[in-house]
Amino acid sequence: MTVLTPVRQPDRATTRRGRPALLVHQIRYEQLSFWRNPQAMVFTFVFPVVVIVIFGAVFGSGDSGSFFFGMSGMEYYTPMIAAVSVLGACYAQLAIVLSLRRQSGQLKRLHATPLPAWVYFAGLLAHCVLVSVIDVVLVVGVGRLYGAPLPAHWAAVALTLLLGAASFCALGVAVASLVGDAEAAPAVVQFIQFPLVFISGSYFPVHSEVLNRIAGLLPVKPFNDAMLAPFTRHGGYDWDALGVLAAWGVAGAVVAVRRFRWDARPA
């Protein structure tokens, strides 16, 4: 005869004590999933390094000039490519990954587990921050080889990186919540990202005052400006740019909370 022993359900205090361990486990899971995907690693790390190497070969020996607002080419492009790498890791990749996981049913199965939703998204955010830090270190290291200066205000870089990662993660989740088909996710993500990157001066300086004003109200240029300040202007914190970036992060979080779905839309 089999004796059934009742299983004791964890109380709230036990659950609260176990949440840090759950968060660490979720971060570890996201990291393992990422590092076991060669294509994700290549696009995330190799692409910005290749871009900064190309720019270094072209502008590495250049002097300061008006085209780069009084900076040399590498002084301008090192923080810009670092910002683009964070945008790709936190916005583009996250929006596509969440769309694919929802389409495959992974999010629906996960939602049925006792894992709190905030732990899942906090793990994603921490993973994106870790990837972004590696990206920024690689880009800054390569830029330094071509004569680009190191940041004069590391605390400003850290704050900008954390706020930018959080804001673009929120926007990535918001976009993923609005995409109905995972196959369309890459196209939707790039359709939004590419125009913003180009009008924000990420790949070439924009000297149009009107265009700069418009781009300054969007999330990418403020992030670029906030990254540029401690790298080249020795200005530390760009609070105006950080404020605009934070506002976009809040807007993205509101859309994500209201519209995010754990299961795919019915056909």
TrEMBL record:
Q: What's the protein's topology in the membrane?
A: Multi-pass membrane protein
> TM spans, by residue?
40-60, 80-98, 118-142, 154-180, 187-206, 239-257
Which keywords has UniProt assigned to this entry? Answer: Antibiotic resistance, Cell membrane, Membrane, Transmembrane, Transmembrane helix, Transport
Tell me a Gene Ontology molecular-function term this record carries: ABC-type transporter activity
Q: Does the keyword Repressor apply?
A: no
GO-annotated biological processes? response to antibiotic
Q: Does the keyword Lipid metabolism apply?
A: no
Q: What is its main location?
A: membrane
Boundaries of every ABC transmembrane type-2 domain copy: 39-263
State a single Pfam family of this protein: ABC2_membrane
Q: Signal sequence span per UniProt?
A: none
Subcellular location field = Cell membrane; Membrane
The record's Gene Ontology cellular component field reads: ATP-binding cassette (ABC) transporter complex
Task: Please report which protein family the annotation says this sequence is part of.
Answer: Belongs to the ABC-2 integral membrane protein family.
Protein name from the UniProt record: Transport permease protein
Origin organism is Streptomyces smaragdinus
For this protein's source organism, the top of the classification is: Bacteria, Bacillati, Actinomycetota, Actinomycetes, Kitasatosporales
